[in-house]
Amino acid sequence: MSPRLKKRSKRRVTLGVVAIFVGAFVLHRNRVNEQSEPTHAYLFGNDSSANLVSEELTPYLHGVASFQELCPHFYEAYHPTHRRAVLAAVSEASARFAVEDELLLAMMAAESNCKAHLRSRRGAVGLMQLMPSTAKWLGVENPFSVRENILGAAKYLAYLRNKFGGNITLAVAAYNSGPVAVKRHGALPPYPETRNYVKKVLSYYERLQGNVATKSA
């Protein structure tokens, strides 16, 4: 074979290998996209009969101004049935783990902007952005499930609150940066991300607590 033909042959082989790698990358990307956008049935389930919303949260089904401002996606993208599924999970989690409804909603708004399909670059998933390792430790089988995600987050938050003597600020900080960091510093960690997160959650929490006062007045 002449040098020219050998050169052409090598070029074809190289192009073939590149094409294989590109094809594999596209296939992988498509699979990731499919995983990052699960179906509504996968997120919300199919059993609407169990979606019982507490009296305190019922107004959120139709729109509470403060929550609409914090989480417009909740009202713009979700069917009323899906909104009910989310709020029913919050009601259940609040009753089971003694975590305030408004605190869970505030964290949901800060974590995911109420986007149940969200997957972060770090791998955190769902409304409450549970990390896979944390979800597994909590016994959450499907972290994309709205109900399991919220229940798992509430269970974790209750654990953190007890760990730090009922201090909500430290519990929220630990939810973001991990309990080891909070314990090591003995206070709110000096990380800008964590400090901004805590400030946002507590600000949202205070705004949503205003709804409690309005409803009880």
Describe the structure.
- The protein starts with a helix and ends with a helix.
- The chain has 217 residues and is mostly helical.
- It has a single domain, classed as Lysozyme (Orthogonal Bundle).
- Helix 7 crosses helix 12 and helix 10 crosses helix 11.
- The C terminus is likely disordered.
- It is built from 12 helices and no strands.
Number of strands: 0
**Number of helices, where a helix is a run of at least 4 consecutive DSSP H or I residues:** 12
What is the CATH T-level topology? Lysozyme
Shape: globular
Question: What is the average of the pLDDT values?
Answer: 82
The largest pleated sheet is described as:
none
**Architecture, CATH level 2?**
Orthogonal Bundle
| Spans of at least 5 consecutive residues with low confidence | 24-36, 212-217
In the CATH hierarchy, what is the class?
Mainly Alpha
Q: Strand-residue fraction?
A: under 5%
Structural class of the secondary elements? mainly alpha
How far apart are the termini?
Answer: 92 Å
Topology of helices and strands:
Elements: H1 3-36, H2 40-44, H3 58-62, H4 65-70, H5 72-76, H6 80-97, H7 101-112, H8 132-138, H9 146-163, H10 168-177, H11 179-185, H12 192-216
